[in-house]
Amino acid sequence: MKHLLLLLTIAALTPLLSFAQNQTGAKTSPGLTVTPATSNTSANPNRQQELYDQYHGITKKPGTQPAPAQSGNMSRTQPGKSNDRTRPERPAKPALAISKPEQAAPAAAESSTSGVRIGLRGGVTYPVFLETVTGVDPGIGFTGGVVFQFGSGTLSFQPEINYTRNALKLRFIDGLGNESIVTGATDQLEIPLLLKLASGDATSNRFFVNLGPYASYALNVSANGKTQSLDGADGRLGFGAAVGIGAALKTGPGHLTIELRGLYSLGDTDSGFNTESRVINTQVTLGYIIPLGGR
User: Fold this and answer.
1) Cα 49 to Cα 60: distance, rounded to the nearest angstrom
2) Confidence check: pLDDT of 256 > 70
3) Hey, which end of the chain has fewer CB within 10 Å, N or C?
4) Is 281 part of any domain?
5) Residue 57 three-state SS
6) Which 3 state secondary structure label does DSSP give 37?
7) Which of 170, 152, 99 is closest to 294 using CA atoms?
8) Helices then strands (H, E): number in the chain?
9) Chain segment 83-137, per-residue pLDDT in tens
10) CATH code for position 160
11) In angstroms, rounded to a whole number, what is the distance separating the alpha carbons of residues 181 and 100?
């Protein structure tokens, strides 16, 4: 009877003893050690039941063991969220192709196709005789002036204002048979109105042909460098036709021009139109022409 009362007493005191052992870390029996919980809170009741079952040798059926107690310092998980702190990498966003805005063309390139151009030209003159004229030989003169050009395509209009000297050498023989040479020249203002036909485009090297009429006004004449006035003289205002061929070489912002031109007189305001002239006044010139403003 005493033994039965002792067993009942031990069975009643076992839960309290287990609870005290969990708090103090004391041994409940030889060979059995209970590790204190890391949390400051009370032990899990399921853990107490497990210790009681171990002490009395009670074995539960598989699948009915309680879930192990979780330590107080373990990370808590929220429903619906993964306990793994490593988040899956997000797929990289496709790189957006950003096209650079087109840069405006330089001002020089825009002006190179301008429809208005201006330049200078200058060179030498030399008369070519279509038939032999007794006592007259050709001489070397000069020309120079301002060139305008309207249009940059295949066809353009090119007016000019030039100052030109056409020279001749005159041979005289006196009564004694002595020969003397007098260099004569005529200074005149020339205004050609030319149609230009050019190859290529205005930004490259070009070949061209100039064709059109011209007007001239005689300013004075000279003999061996001595100038004589033409006041009151007839036929000072003349006209004729001009034809020239040449090349325009792209140089810097403009073009360097080389031209061979011939001018043929077709009359004047006093004698009218005629084709009796046997002289072609040729000109070999260099020039430079540049564009003005934009397209």
Assistant:
1) 11
2) yes
3) N
4) yes
5) coil
6) coil
7) 152
8) 3, 11
9) 445 555 565 555 555 555 555 544 444 445 678 999 999 999 999 999 988 889 9
10) 2.40.160.20
11) 75
* Half-sphere exposure at residue 96, Cβ-oriented, CA atoms within 13 angstroms: 3
d(CA 147, CA 51): 117
Domains of the chain: total: 2
Q: Containing domain of residue 143, as a range? A: 115-291
218 and 129 housed in the same domain = yes
Whether residue 158 sits in one domain with residue 242: yes
Contact indicator for 182, 172 with CB cutoff of 8 Å:
yes
160-217 pLDDT, tens digit each: 999 999 999 998 887 787 888 899 999 999 999 999 999 988 889 999 999 999 999 9
Quick check: is 287 in a domain? yes
CA quadruple 166, 167, 173, 174: dihedral positive or negative? Answer: positive
Residues 267, 231: contact at Cβ < 8 Å?
no
For the chain, percent of residues with pLDDT exceeding 90: 47
User: Residue 211: how many CB atoms within 10 A of its CB?
Assistant: 14
pTM: 0.61
What gap in Å lies between CA 286 and CA 278, rounded to an integer? Answer: 26
Residues in the chain: 295
The whole-angstrom separation of Cα 203 and Cα 195 is 20
Does residue 108 fall inside a structural domain? no
